[in-house]
Amino acid sequence: MGIESELAGISTPDVVETSIGEVRFRDGAPQPGTAELVYDYLDRARGVEVFLNAMSGASVHALVSGPRALGVSQVGQVLVFDGLMDSASLFLTGNTSTLYALPFIDLGADGPTVVEVPPGMLGAFDDMWFRYIGDIGPAGPDKGAGGTYLLLPPGYEGDVPEGYFVLRSRTFGVWTFMRGSVANGLDAGVANIVDNLKVYPLARRDDPPEMEFISGSAKAFNTIHPNTYEFYEHVNELVQMESDEMLDVETRGLLASIGIVKGKPFTPDERMKRILTDAVAIGNAIARSTVWYPRMTGARIYPDTNSNWMMAWVDKDVFFERDGARDLDARVMYHYAYTAVTPAMAVSVPGKGSDYGIAFLDGNDDPFDGSETYRLHLPPNVPVNDFWAVTLYDSQTRSQLQTSQRFPTVGSNDAELQANPDGSYDIYFASQAPSGYEHNWLETIPGKSWFAGLRMYGPEQPWIDQTWRPGEIERLT
Predict the structure, then answer these.
(1) Which CATH number fits the domain that encloses residue 174?
(2) Tell me: the pLDDT tens digits for 96-119?
């Protein structure tokens, strides 16, 4: 091979056609217009990457910030859905069937913090980049009997007293979610939390502040990150208030490439604002596409069929790893539509816990249309030890669909739910209830899209080994 062919491989023509336009050079030296063009592209591409890679942080930042509208802003305050979660609040794919309790924790303001967990709770601690810290309940060290946890802030080097389940966080903020049982009734579940849940600084263990439980039921507030330029401002807020341990050097450099640097103001000029506005629109389209049309293997519950039932966790892996590498699309798919990171939510144990199927498309692979009528058929002997429930969500907000039904859910706990003669069930989705199936109906809104979640509480072996399968959600009109 001669030197001429080598030069041909490393040389750049004076004019090159690309997907972003024509780039021009003078014997390899970029022309000024080319440099401007490619820098616009580079800034836009990095803006897209920030949206996709910082989504986890923006999401948990919104989860912590949203309840402040209700007054949940200091240690000892707990947001509790004492009337269950309904469609009033914007909360990613929340359910209407279990009792949520969300304490406020800020290790930066309060130092090491104690959380006394009541018995019968299930949940987890996540940091402000939505990384898993530890479990509460059967999968945690308290094993469901309740116990006392001690959360330590980043860089803590002080004494660690005995008698606690000790967890260390890489961030000052810690998002803690707990779900209480309502098996003995909602009032009993609420009383268990109000009477026994305690959150206080370790420094005040001998004189803890009085607890304050603030209801989130039937209240409108937002816990979802924006999909506009404001997204970057939220990420900047999080970076400014958080520990240096929150980000690795690669992610810190990615944020810095668009102007988000701790200790410095985020003041993009008009050109950069325009580029980031474009970038977040592209990122939002990418995120929604990974949710509705995932191309990752392991996203479908029944990959041997054309079924559109999806799982939230690709391959049930909460750490988004595949063959020793991070599955970036799987991470985006999860954080755009769901919350809470814990391995316990991705483990199927016969008769215990919960499992989920999500349908974003109908049996014809089309997004759902609120103007049409659909039906979901559940074969006989739905395999659950506890109960099953179907909930509708708004495609825009990924929160419970807001209709005349405060709780957009039907399931086996509904006393008036109508079974077919063979023990199967048909659930209808339409703007008007089909005659004779008023109690098997979830309301939709003409002109608005939706998706559905099937929750299996205490899933039995036929669900786990897939010998029992739900039907597709089929369009009837």
Answers:
(1) 2.60.40.1610
(2) 999 999 999 999 999 999 999 999
